[in-house]
Every structure is written in C-alpha cells, then in structure tokens.
Amino acid sequence: MPTFGERSKVYPFTTENLAGYMCDLKLEGKKVLTITCSGDHILNSFFYGAEEVVGFDINTLALLFSELKIKAIQRLDFEDFKSYFLIGNEQTMSSEIYSHLRSWLSKDCVNFFDNIYKKYNNDGEQIRKSKLFNKRFDINELRISSNPYLHSNFSYAKTKTNLSEKNVKFINCNVNDLSSKLEGSFDIIILSNLADYAQAIFPEETNYLESFCKEVVLSLKKRLNPNGIICAAYVYDARDKEEYRSLIDNPKLRQEIFGSLGMIYQEKRFKCIVPGKENKHDLVALLKI
C-alpha cells in the first residue's frame, strides 16, 4: 500500500468506482468537501450539480494536477480532454494542449508543469509514463466507466457547464489538521479511502481505526450541515475473509466503530472495478446526521 506525503505520486484518475455511489448522494445545489486525489471526486461532484466544492490533500502535486484537470475540462472539448489525459493517444499530455491551457493556470501550477515539460523535452507520453504518476489500474475503459463525467459527450458538457465561472478552493494539509483549516460548513464530506491509511496516520495506536474516527471523523462532523453526510470510508472488495489487510476491511469491527459515533450508519455496496475482481463488490461507509 502506498504512503502519502507532500510530493507523492499523482493518481491520474480515481481507482474507485465513483459511478457506483455518488449518484445517490443527492449533490444538486450542495456544498461539498472532498479529498482531491486525482480531481475526479471534484469533477463528479460538479457533474451531479454541486454548488460549491472544496478539495483537500496533503499531496501538493495532487492539487496542482487537479487544477490542470479542472482548467482542462473548462477549456477543452470532450475528445481533446480524453486524448490529453488518457494513456495511449498521440496527444497524451501533449505540450501543444498544455500550452493552450497554460495561461489559465495559477503561477505555482505553471511553474511546476513548465519544469516537468522541460525535464521530459516536451514529450507528453514520457511524462504520462514517468514516476510522477501512480499508474495502478491505468486502463482507459476503467477510467471512463468509473467516472460519470466521462460517460458521454453530454455528461462532459454538463460538467463543463456546471463548472462555468466557478473556482474550486484547495486546502493543502494533513487530514488531522483539516477541520481547523475549514471555513463554514458542508452538506457532503467525502474522505475516499483515507481510513485505509489510518494506521499510518496513527502509528502508535493499536485500534488505529477508532482513533481515526474519533480524531478525524468526529472533528469533521462539527462541520456538517443539518442532514449532512460523511462518506467516511471506501472499502475495496468488501466481503468476509479469513484475514483482513486493514481494520477498515473487517465488517464486524467497521460496523461496531462507525456505529458508536452517534450518527446513522449505513453501507452502500456496488460493483468492484478492480481487474480480476469484477464479480466482487466495493462499499462506501456513510454516516448521516
């Protein structure tokens, strides 16, 4: 399992099946706080009609890449966007397309990607294959199927329209400090699979999942609006097993700890998209006020 820091590898697209559960969050007109990662949680939030989205991440590179991705969807048509970000295209990370986007990016984003293009002699394919990216499950069909905003030209255009004239606020911080960095409150909070890394966040704790819930989840609960929802965990291949790689994968322990937080706890299951596990199911753990 990878560890995350201020300059970790960037995920070009989500490894989660966001199409499996985001449709049920009723995001229309809502204010959303979400982990940034690849930027796909942000883009899909706007596809489903979110009014405002704040992205957070400890990884500075993820924030810069997500800025590029957001500006790209605002400025490129559907085919050019796919050609630029998906693998195996003549225009993959094309320097020509980047030059078109460059004037719309922040100074920090321009400085970073200018250096990347210089390092790789403007060879977009080499950039996409470089150590900058985490290429786990980097299969175009999976990238498209898991992201509703990429399902069709119509869904892409809808996302582009919903993003029009909107700025996404980014917060670069550790999740332990997130609550103190926030302004206002939110209707939906999406933590992705951060619970997978609870042991790394709380290395001194035996029951690190409980510590994650008390220190992170409950601190964010204070930032929820009435009827708000926290997507507290994403669990891959959620089934009973003889051994669990992490506490969050243990269904009995997961339900016991999340069920003790004074919120309504539910689990939504949906199709797993991990290659070789298509007949399995993932789940998202939902906490509701």
Give structural attributes.
about 290 residues, alpha/beta, Rossmann fold, seven-stranded mixed β-sheet, 12 helices, 7 strands, about 35% helix
Number of strands: 7
Largest sheet: 7 strands, mixed
Q: What is the radius of gyration? A: 19 Å
Question: Which ranges are low-confidence, i.e. pLDDT below 50, for 5 or more consecutive residues?
Answer: none
Number of domains: 1
Helical content stands at: 25-40%
Strand fraction band?
Answer: 15-25%
User: Ends: how far apart?
Assistant: 32 Å
Number of helices: 12
Task: Sum up the overall morphology in one term.
Answer: globular
For the largest sheet, list the strands in their spatial order. 3-2-1-4-5-7-6
Q: Could you state the CATH homologous superfamily?
A: Vaccinia Virus protein VP39
Instruction: Indicate the mean pLDDT.
Output: 95
| SSE-based structural type | alpha/beta
CATH topology: Rossmann fold
Explain this structure to me?
The protein has one domain: Vaccinia Virus protein VP39 (Rossmann fold, 3-Layer(aba) Sandwich), CATH 3.40.50. The protein is 37% helix and 17% strand. The chain has helices at residues 40-47, 60-75, 78-85, 95-102, 107-119, 124-129, 140-145, 153-163, 178-181, 198-201, 208-221, 251-258; strands spanning 31-35, 52-57, 169-172, 186-190, 224-235, 264-271, 281-288. Strands 3-2-1-4-5-7-6 form a seven-stranded mixed β-sheet, with helices on both faces. The model has no long low-confidence stretch (mean pLDDT 95). Helix 1 links the parallel strand 1 and strand 2. It is α/β, with parallel strands linked by helices. It contains twelve helices and seven strands. The longest helix has 16 residues, at 60-75.
